[in-house]
Amino acid sequence: PWTGRAMGVAMVQILLLVIWAPSWDRITLIEPHSDMSVFCFTQTDLYSGALFVQVCLGWNLYLSTVLVLVVTALYTIAGGLVAVIYTDALQTLIMVIGAVTLAVKAFGEIGGYQNLEEAYLKAVPAKIIPNTTCHLPRADAMHLFRDPVSGDLPWTGMTFGLSVLATWYWCTDQVIVQRSLSAKNLNHAKAGSILASYLKMLPLVVIIMPGMISRVLYPDAVACVDPTECARVCGAEVGCSNIAYPKLVVELMPSGLRGLMIAVMMAALMSSLTSVFNSSSTLFTMDVWRKVRPDAGERELLLVGRLATVVLVAVSVVWIPILQSSSGGQLYIYIQSVTSALAPPVTAVFALAVFWRRANEQGAFWGLMVGLAAGLARLGLEFAHPTPRCGTSDERPSILRDIHYLHFAVLLCALTAVVVVGLSLLTDPPMESQVSPGAWGHPPRATQHVPKDQLDTRAPHPLPAQLGRGPPATALRDTAETPFWSSICCVNAVLLMCINVFFYAYFA
């Protein structure tokens, strides 16, 4: 909603793009370091949750942060992935009902959707900076495809750069992969993705447009540009876009519904936080600690995972003041710019591992290293040279001023791919046994349906280092698909693609 306030409907492209990964042993050691998006998501979730509590209840920002942390950590640490999934399922229902209720109320305030564009283009704060235009809404606010050079979200970056980021998130991100792997069977995993895709169609109407309506109704607060005025309104001199949705809730909703919306936002934020907490714990324990201490027992891994989560949260809290002033005060843009610097190398390695059987460990490892170094260099420049405020000249380095972060994502993905291909061709090809059965053109392993009464549930003979540690292994579940439900999932996938194309055509 905060970015919808500033940029309009183009942000929905990030929400509409909905797309597991081969791995080598050495690469698992650097993936947690390159997957700094976990850190990014933690700090943004904490900040947005605390900001919402601050606006709605008037509490101190850091006190609000502690409140969100304590409530979330209690059931995440106590219940693990099972608690996360069950609470997510319940909170999703609450979120949809609350968000739809607020959207209906907001559209009623401006006389319906037909008045949105006209009202939005007239939403200008009373206090402006003379001889500037940053207080004016964008003329292309109701369009998805914007100028590739001067556009704030160029269509080239949104089409190609965002595809790189979406592939990384929906195919390789730990949060999504954990949920897919926790499904009962393949049909359930597909159906879960289909349901999530349908829910992804809602944000345009229940998140982006209400953010635009918030600017229409409260331009002096949400659309402020004067640093002094912005500091008075929300405590951030760079802008108050981030308070668009909380402001709408506080000012528009009656007491009972206001309480519902506070519950909705807390549910959404805690849902994201629990996912990140659980995923970060798994990443560190399985990909790092187990390599350092291969004899570690389950109790030790559990303790280390919880300690890693505590450290991650502590650093995220300390980072909040920096986040407040980043990306012109627009939280969602901060998330996307950080992801654009870190995710493309993973996308390139993943795509080549799936579609090019010649890719090997040497190429993948050094491709990730080069891509990570280039991405961190860009990220360092962004923190050292923040977006200039309204009325000041842009003196940032050319790589920041002239290359949009989504365009940089495409270039970084291409650079990584070149390194992977080059080194793979210069070194020995992988052995046939090392090629994943999920690789393109590689014959899949036959799936056999074994009757339950014939399943061998006995644990395999344990390795000496694993004796007496952890629960006994059980037989793998049957991965065979039911043809009827498989067809239902495929039909819905095609239908979703058609709906997606319609949105792109309508708002082009």
Automatic annotation (TrEMBL):
Q: How does it sit in the membrane?
A: Multi-pass membrane protein
Residue stretches spanning the membrane: 6-24, 61-86, 93-113, 153-171, 192-213, 260-280, 301-322, 334-356, 363-385, 405-426, 484-507
Indicate where this protein is primarily found.
Answer: membrane
Q: Does the keyword Transmembrane apply?
A: yes
Question: Can you list the GO cellular component terms from the UniProt entry?
Answer: apical plasma membrane
> Biased composition, Basic and acidic residues: where in the chain?
450-459
Query: Does the keyword Acetylation belong to this entry?
Result: no
Q: Name one GO molecular function term.
A: D-glucose:sodium symporter activity
Region annotation Disordered: residue ranges? 435-472
Write out the entry's keywords from A to Z.
Cell membrane, Glycoprotein, Ion transport, Membrane, Sodium, Sodium transport, Sugar transport, Transmembrane, Transmembrane helix, Transport
Function per UniProt: Electrogenic Na+-coupled sugar symporter that actively transports D-mannose or D-fructose at the plasma membrane, with a Na+ to sugar coupling ratio of 1:1. Transporter activity is driven by a transmembrane Na+ electrochemical gradient set by the Na+/K+ pump. Exclusively recognizes sugar substrates having a pyranose ring with an axial hydroxyl group on carbon 2. Has likely evolved to enable renal reabsorption of D-mannose, an important constituent of oligosaccharide chains of glycoproteins.
Family stated for the protein in its record: Belongs to the sodium:solute symporter (SSF) (TC 2.A.21) family.
Could you tell me what this protein is called? Sodium/mannose cotransporter SLC5A10
- Which organism is this entry from? Crocodylus porosus (Saltwater crocodile)
Lineage per the UniProt record: Eukaryota, Metazoa, Chordata, Craniata, Vertebrata
